[in-house]
Amino acid sequence: MNSKKWEPRIVAFFCNWCTYRAADLAGISRMKYAPNVRIIRVMCTGRIDPQFILNAFSKGADGVLIGGCHPGDCHYVEGNYKALRRFRLLSRMLKDMGIEEGRLRLEWISASEGEKVQWAVNNMLEKVRGMGPLDLPDHFKEWDKEMEMVKPELSEKVVRNG
Amino acid sequence: MGKEKPKIAFYWCASCGGCDESFLDLAEDILDLVEKIDIVFWPVALDYKRKDLEALPDQSILMTMINGSLRTSEQEEMALLLRRKSKILIAYGTCAHLGGIPSLANQFEREKILEYLYKSAPSVVNKENVLPKIQYDEKGHKVTLPEFRNVVRSLDQVVDVDYYLPGCSPPPKLLKKAFSLLLSQELPSKGSVLAPDIALCYECPRIESKPKDLSIAEFKRLHHTQPAPEKCFLAQGIACIGPATRGGCEARCIQGNMPCTGCFGPTSRVRDQGAKILSALASSVKAKSEEDIDRALSGIPDPVGSFYRYGLAKSLLRVKRIESNNSVESKNNGVEK
Amino acid sequence: MDDLKEEIRIGVYVCHCGTNIAGIIDVKEVSRTAAGLPGVVISRDYKYMCSYPGQAIIQEDIKEYKLTRLIVAACSPLMHEETFRNAAAKGGLNPFSFQMVNIREHGAWVNDDKEAVTMKANDLIRAAVYRIVCHKPFQRTRVDIQPSVLVVGGGIAGIQAALTIANAGKKVFLVEREPTIGGHMAKFDKTFPTLDCAACILTPKMTSVKAHPNITLWAYSEVRKVEGFVGNYKVQVGRKPRYIHEDLCVGCLKCIDSCVYEKPQFPKEFDLGLSKRKPVYIPFPQAVPQIPVIDPETCNKIKFGKCKQLCMEACNERKAIDFDQKEKIEEIEVGAIIIATGFKIFDPKRLPCYGYGIYQNIYTSIEVERLLNASGPTGGKVVLQNGKKPETVGIIHCVGSRDVLNTNSWCSRVCCLYSLKLAHLLKEHTEAKIYNFYIDIRAPGKNMEEFYNRVSKEGIHFIRGRAASVTLDDSDENMSGVVIQAEDTLIGKTLKVPVDMVVLSVGMEPQPDAKEVGRMFSIPCAENSFFLEQHPKLAPVSTMTEGIFLAGCCQGPKDIPDTVAQAGAAASEALSLIDNGYKELEPYTAYIEEDECAGCKTCIPLCPYSAISLHEEKKKAIIQETLCRGCGVCVSACPSGSIKQKLFEDREIFCEINGVLERQ
Ligand SMILES: Cc1cc2nc3c(=O)[nH]c(=O)nc-3n(C[C@H](O)[C@H](O)[C@H](O)COP(=O)(O)OP(=O)(O)OC[C@H]3O[C@@H](n4cnc5c(N)ncnc54)[C@H](O)[C@@H]3O)c2cc1C
Ligand code: SF4
Ligand code: SF4
Ligand code: FES
Fold first, then answer.
1. CB–CB of B198 and C596 under 8 A?
2. A84 CA to centre of ligand 4 in angstroms
3. I need a surface site. Which of B38, C278, C332, C641 has the fewest CB within 10 A?
4. What number is the average pLDDT over the span C349-372?
5. Residue C249, Cβ neighbours under 10 Å: how many?
6. pLDDT of C493-514, one tens digit each?
7. A151 to chain B, closest Cα gap in Å
8. Do the Cβ atoms of B269 and C596 come closer than 8 Å?
9. Roughly how many angstroms between the first and final C-alpha of chain C, as a whole number?
10. Counting one residue from A and one from B, how many pairs have CB atoms under 8 Å apart?
């Protein structure tokens, strides 16, 4: 990884009824966008547990994109409002944890807006590229290196559950 | 009695001392306990030295309870040593379990912490700007101090842990139960948290008053309100972490008219307690537009402090990301040498 | 977490999709990489996985390699997930031990960089492999469906829906709260845009309802309780006492003639108080059912316990009259429900500036409909209070509509057109000079603009501007006339127009009890409290509660053609549901582990379908699977992680995340 040029990695959570379909449409229309995004399908943005987002960051995502139906259009009435509420608070919390605004992004993309998927991914990628790597896994490793300094006769039993 | 009594050790790392004190909460039961066991190490109460511990054969201690989180090389060494000497290692109390309050320091750079504590805090007078050094000569004597680590850790981020006894501090009932469980032959499965695996609301005396259609107009800060003595805190718009927190404390804080702040940590089904309570509380807000949502949530001005009060070290993000942290390596052991 | 003791044997199939995928993605490489993942026992690539031979390979492999899990990396799951689930099932696997990976729409088709897309495919497949280990087998739940439908509300919407379903041979219960069906339409004289007589087109339908062998009509009745779920609703209907037994009455109406009140004395509801009725009455001559009602508020016998009871005498041996009648509760089971409770007109007293109820000769549109009607209070004559014909009439549009600040934000859609209709009819009946005060003329729909053109050529005056006020005309000696003040926005001048009569074109509002009705049927009201459809475009007659549909103005303002069309749509949705006999529920439903739930109640209000309730003894939340649609909102909100969603369990998604991010 380190030997290669750094490429941002984005995990996207798209709802089944609008944004996932929009991404399909982008494909059907052969719209090209950056290959750095990995789309995970959930039934509704309301299913997105903030734990998923934190887990994505902690496992090496440089950005997380949430895509759902426009307000008022959620297939399950108000799932996207619940997502929005969590997003607002989570964004604030991430900022407090030193994770730049923009690494977590929420976009309303209806099933007909293939182009918006293309734009959102490319635009986000550009922004995240500008921020540089987040790379939490390496940070965790770096921090934990300091523990290797403890007396070797003791450390043979070191087990970490980070 | 012919049979040797099981050997037990207690140790403290970065902690307030409350956990050690909590053994005394056993009251007269403690006499019973002392009858059954042989305490081989307990720095806070008995005069044992590290060399006494080192002299014990490996695995000769049945059970060691360590409280406090870990931030110095000495604490790591002691944890490793105790691990080596003990059959069962228990993270005792929230700090050992999840990092505890001390791990809120993971929001600050280590240099900044030292700087503040030794130089800029209003109560400090340090004209020569002396900072602690790992080694220095004092009239020909070499004196060493432990290293101050970059981050605060929970016990299991340093050594392998068998069981966890949660709480700040663990209540005597659970402690007693844990003792009788662990002294018996039926050990729970490794990694268990020795408390009920169900959230606090289940045993909260206020649960009846929590409405089935809770929709929070805005969060209120505790010090801006007079919480009603019998009504669910959330029903009053006061953030309560109880729904995302393991029960077993018998709702001690709630009985004192304070909302739950989450010291027992999450249930076994949850990886990140803060994220989960964030999800639950934010979902329950009434507002729909960004501005209204932000306004409603402005009563939670410090989400990290509110949701990870006891568990930042064990959270998914662990440490606040600070730009200069990017190069931890370069300034590793950066304390003046 | 429960241990997975079963052996995990995964088969991975990478589809070329001709050159669609294989042209960009190195499918051989992808298949080779997959073969090295934990649990994978066979990995292949093939030209067209969805083809018959492609599916056959899968089925053979399941047997030969004893596969317990199946992954196909091909097109979008929205395209072929069902295909491969079926293939899995045919091969003897549980259909949900399958996971589809989208490497076409989300891979080959959106990227040019071969190396990068191949890596993307590898990542996505790795995620699926990690995820599928957690999959648990399960069956789709089926529920039986009662082959009958309840229709609530007997306006034109309810009538149309009931007839459609009954004609298809299914049983219908039609519940109407008033003594007669017909709704608002029964009150009109003519209907726009064709100006055909309302009674002529409506009353035949009303009689068919009564006569239809498949329809049970319960007028003067209301739904009291609804329980159950799609296909199996248990409903209690309260049949209010008419004090006349429907089964004994023959509709001779002799009781009305013989009532001790010789003259009608009490305001008649059907005519909005413009005429009088007796305590025993029939709302209008063509009422269905043709059975009178006795109003307990005005009947001497019921109210004061004393009366000669001449009606009883007149009814004679038929003995239909019964002053001790009580509300009777009927219990029915139905598979589907259609709500057709209609609308209420805006009460213009809320806008005192228009003088309604203050000055004489100010009417609402619906009152004018009655005045124009040959069977109405005046026998179809439009006269002023002084008995003279009006010489000038002002019609004020948009009363209670399109007024965000004071009344309702929405356009009621029919008022412009019925105002035109009334202008035409008033002119026809009185030859008066007619002024229409409008904001815009909204005449969308087939033949509507033509209707406007026709009426505007009839010498009707149009003044563009919202009328500001109606005040007494001081210059009028009789002090009976009024002045309408409005700004004509086309010439930018304030006008004062003296008129003899004012018609207020009142808008449509939700029924005053819409919220309670909505709660009873678990169907939410939109912001303005008309009932909310499941999807504004794609499911316009469905509601958030499965098996409950909407028809007519209870969903929002509309005219009769649209109401009838919507009623037909609701009827066919209900039919397609009940005709099947059973229904398969979504596989993605959520469930709660009882031991784990703390009863914190967080989830209960979050469910859009009220699928979650609190078990009152156990103090734990329970999800009624038949109501759950699988959005997962409760799962992610459950603060103790005690709600799981089939196929979208936390750990499945965690594994997926870990999988896409693991470094190659
Ligand atoms: C003044 C005026 C003139 C109009 N003129 C025309 C026209 O010329 N042409 C045209 O196309 N449209 C016209 N419209 C529109 C037309 O009235 C509606 O499109 C039509 O009546 C809608 O029918 P509906 O069945 O949805 O509602 P409704 O006619 O309101 O019928 C609803 C029925 O449900 C019953 N009900 C309500 N609640 C309950 C309950 N809880 N339980 C049981 N029963 C209940 C009511 O008693 C009523 O019988 C006019 C509207 C107005 C106000
Ligand atoms: S939210 Fe807090 S106060 Fe309310 S019932 Fe749960 S633990 Fe008790
Ligand atoms: S998954 Fe959605 S629909 Fe199902 S019970 Fe939970 S909130 Fe209701
Ligand atoms: S279904 Fe798309 S956001 Fe809810």
1. yes
2. 11
3. B38
4. 96
5. 20
6. 999 999 999 999 999 999 999 9
7. 7
8. yes
9. 28
10. 145
Say what the pTM is: 0.76
Question: Sheet holding C467-472: strands in order across?
Answer: C467-472, C482-488, C493-499
Nearest-angstrom CA–CA distance, C90 and C582 = 22
Chains that touch C (3 or more CB pairs under 8 A): A, B
Q: Extract the tokens encoding A138.
A: 């390496």
3-state secondary structure of C393: strand
Containing H/E element for B3? none
What gap in Å lies between CA C436 and CA C428, rounded to an integer?
Answer: 16
Does A75 contact C at CB distance below 8 Å?
A: yes
- Let me know if residue B50 belongs to a domain: yes
Residue carrying structure tokens 């009814």: C315
Domain that includes residue B90, residue range: 7-101+150-183
CATH architecture of C140-240+327-343+510-585: 3-Layer(bba) Sandwich (3.50)
Please give the C-alpha separations between residue B294 and each of A82, B237, B319, C298, C456, in angstroms, as whole numbers. 13, 15, 25, 57, 52
Q: Which amino acid is at C66?
A: K
Round to the nearest angstrom and report the end-to-end CA distance of chain B: 54
Distances (CA, A) of B242 to A41, B50, C595: 31, 40, 17
Which of C597, C600, C601, C640 for a ligand 2 pocket mutation test, highest count of atoms within 8 Å of Cβ? Answer: C600
B40 domain residue, yes or no:
yes
Q: Which percentage of chain C shows pLDDT scores above 70?
A: 98
State the closest ligand 1 atom to the C-alpha of C182, by its place in the atom list counted from 1. 49
Question: Closest to C608 (Cβ–Cβ): which among A26, A50, A76?
Answer: A76
Q: In the numeric block, which tokens belong to residue C159? A: 């009538």
CATH 3.50.50.60 in chain C is located at 140-240+327-343+510-585, 346-508
User: What is the arithmetic mean of pLDDT over B100-105?
Assistant: 97
Letter for the amino acid at C406?
N
ipTM: 0.94
Give the dihedral of Cα atoms C239, C245, C246, C247; nearest 10 deg. Answer: 120
The tens digit of pLDDT for each residue in C232-271 reads: 999 999 999 999 999 999 999 999 999 999 999 999 999 9
Q: Report whether CATH 3.40.50 matches the domain A10-133.
A: yes
Chain B contact present for C658, CB below 8 A: no
d(CA C453, CA B175): 88
